[in-house]
Amino acid sequence: MSEPDVFPQVLSASAMSNTFLGNLIEVCFATEDYLRTMRGMVRLGIGPWRVYTFDGSTVADREYGGEPADWALKVAFADVGDVAFEIMQPLYGPSIIREFLDSHGEGVHHLAFDCGEAAWDSRAEEFARRGFRCSQAGRFMDANAFAFFSTEGAVTTTLETYSIPDGFEWPEPEEWFPGPPPAGEAAVVRAQRS
């Protein structure tokens, strides 16, 4: 897609007339070894980490390149203020994480933005209207919709959007690393992320 001939109107120091992404809510690191990466983050004071497997048992409507696909990722989250740090390790099947690791090696893979008040379908349509196709998508626990878009050529990284429905509660993770929060706080953490 070529550069626009006419730029949007600047509305404020943080908004333009074409602003639609919403708030930055996540920074994701692609890795070949999620445990090694979590250990490094913990050494820097980032954690505790909640670990999940995103596969056919936890993610509905898995897509890759616009087609149904069988893929799995190990995914871990830790909160840093209002932003989640995420670690993704491919387990099997085609994925944009595997592509990134094969072509770039480990590192920051994508930034995620909340859907805000926008309806999920109109959100994906807006990315498409701006020339960015969906490269991978799914629905965690058949509720939390997420989609990655092919924005690398325009902004040098992938952008993701997701929509956590009101009342969604994160399930208990497979593991906490380096350990769980004090008794009772795990439920508070799950509620805060929703």
Protein topology:
Elements: E1 10-12, E2 15-16, E3 24-30, H1 34-43, E4 49-54, E5 59-64, E6 67-68, E7 72-80, E8 83-92, H2 96-104, E9 107-114, H3 120-129, E10 134-140, E11 144-149, H4 152-155, E12 158-163, E13 175-177, H5 185-192
Parallel strand pairs: 3-8, 9-12
Antiparallel strand pairs: 1-2, 3-9, 4-7, 4-13, 5-6, 5-10, 7-8, 10-11, 11-12
Written description of the protein model:
This protein has 5 helices and 13 strands. The chain is α+β, with helices and mostly antiparallel strands and 194 residues long. It has one domain: 2,3-Dihydroxybiphenyl 1,2-Dioxygenase, domain 1 (Roll). The strands form 2 sheets. The protein has an 11-stranded mixed beta sheet with strand order 6-5-10-11-12-9-3-8-7-4-13. Strands 1-2 form a two-stranded antiparallel ribbon. The longest helix has 10 residues, at 34-43. The protein is globular and about 50 Å long. The N and C termini lie far apart (35 Å).
User: Taking Cα atoms only, what radius of gyration do you get, to the nearest Å?
Assistant: 17 Å
What is the CATH fold-level name? 2,3-Dihydroxybiphenyl 1,2-Dioxygenase, domain 1
Number of helices: 5
The gross shape turns out to be globular
CATH class: Alpha Beta
Strands of the biggest beta sheet: in what spatial order? 6-5-10-11-12-9-3-8-7-4-13
Q: Unreliable stretches, pLDDT < 50, 5 or more residues?
A: 190-194
C-alpha end-to-end distance: 35 Å
Task: Using the 3D structure, state the CATH architecture.
Answer: Roll
Helix-strand makeup class: alpha+beta
Number of DSSP-assigned strands: 13
Kindly estimate the percentage of residues that lie in beta strands according to DSSP: 35-45%
Helix and strand string, N-terminal first? EEEHEEEEEHEHEEHEEH
Annotated CATH homologous superfamily: 2,3-Dihydroxybiphenyl 1,2-Dioxygenase, domain 1
Protein name: Methylmalonyl-CoA epimerase
Pfam families: Glyoxalase_4
